[in-house]
Amino acid sequence: MVLALNYSRPRYVARSHKSHGSMDSSMSIIESESGASFKSMPLTAKGIPDALSFDRIISGGTCPPCTKREFLNYLKYVEFAPENLQFFLWFKDYEKRWETTPNSERVLAPEWTPDMAEAERKQYRTTVKAAHQSKTEKELFKGSDFDEKPKLQETEGSEAIPFAAIPQTPNSEKRETIQSQDGSIRPTTGMRSIMTNHTNAAESAFEDAGLKKPFTVQPHRDEINRILAIYILEHAPRELNFSGRERHATLRALEYTTHPSAFRELVNNVEYSLRQQSHPNFIRWAICNGNRPRVIFARGLGISLILAGIVTQILLTISHAGRAWRVLPILLLVPGIATLIAAWKGMCVVLHGLHHQHVRPWELFAVQEEDGTLKHGSEYNLSSASIDIDSLRSPSKNSFEDEPWVNKYKKRNVVRQVFDRETYIKEPMLRQIQDTIFIQALLAAVLISAIIVAIFAAIPRGHII
């Protein structure tokens, strides 16, 4: 299998629009947890076998460590962007539940057709263009007699107020405004981000966009309002990364219906990002079987064996020993070079020989179950690929800095991290990819070692020692 050649070693960078407080300290724990890193890579799923495809992972057809739960954990703890997968999983579940909704309710929420979406896009472009032109005209006539801004009236016996607006105090809330379609100025949803009532937040969002309040009798309207407040509205706790035009188009569709087709454009963008970027990165990350300290240790071991082999080769060359003895250092060079190449790809050859991998930091510590029993983190995360749908509708943020494992893992000494607990790799295709990488590393090591031995064998004996 040559596909393993396409897998470069990853570095995972947090998305710029997210803020995670003490993320920098947490990043030092799990950034390139395998010890591998990459700068930029082609965002393509090309070369990934069908057994580890995106659809197979989402449908639950893979084994640990490539299940849907590991995918979500990777996005949360490594890429810092699990909201795409969370929203996608919720939408797929919503589609299934919509099919079971009685027809008497579904007729209240007709489909949002592509023609309607295209008409809305054209109207949005026209509105934005008109708003931009109006703004330009206002700036052009600002301060002149044609300025539409109302002048301050002077009262008898008093002086004119020298400022058109009262400056805000440092503790005052930032007041952002937006121009709606009817030309009026309204506060944005960001000012209402502290609102906990999802229905009120959704209604405010429709009002900000110059839209009408949707019909509450449509099926699943309360759930849609909740999803709006969690994923779509500005400053939402799990705000998706999309443009203002896409947000307005989604709100316009949800004003009209609760049919799953209202999310068509948004879901297509989310799915594209998952398939073309997050999924390939996840597979590359899953191939790495060791944590960062273990991989650094493996690299050091490989370099040490290579240096020992070269030093031995030099000593044999300057000695009275025959040329045949100069082949012996290959016993040090081959394992050293193979270990170094494998470690450079994030793999430890010892763990690979056992088909093991290190338990991830967030899986190391016990988890308290509802019945009061304790399950180990690895058993809790690896035993099932199922994900609680209620967690996808949770208004909590995707931040993890306050989770207990962060500080606990920081306190573990380096030696203990090198020999962290291991778990068996159950996914056969992942084991096959790792076998391919190991064989490639071994063949490359034999070739390089043979060249080194041949070079030293060509040098005459030194007769020094």
Automatic annotation (TrEMBL):
SUPFAM superfamilies on file: Regulator of G-protein signaling, RGS
Superkingdom as given in the UniProt entry: Eukaryota
Positions of the UniProt region annotated as Disordered: 140-189
Chain intervals with Polar residues compositional bias: 178-189
Keyword tags: Membrane, Transmembrane, Transmembrane helix
Biased composition (Basic and acidic residues): 140-154
Transmembrane region(s): 296-318, 330-354, 437-459
Gene3D superfamilies: Regulator of G-protein Signalling 4, domain 2
Protein name: RGS domain-containing protein
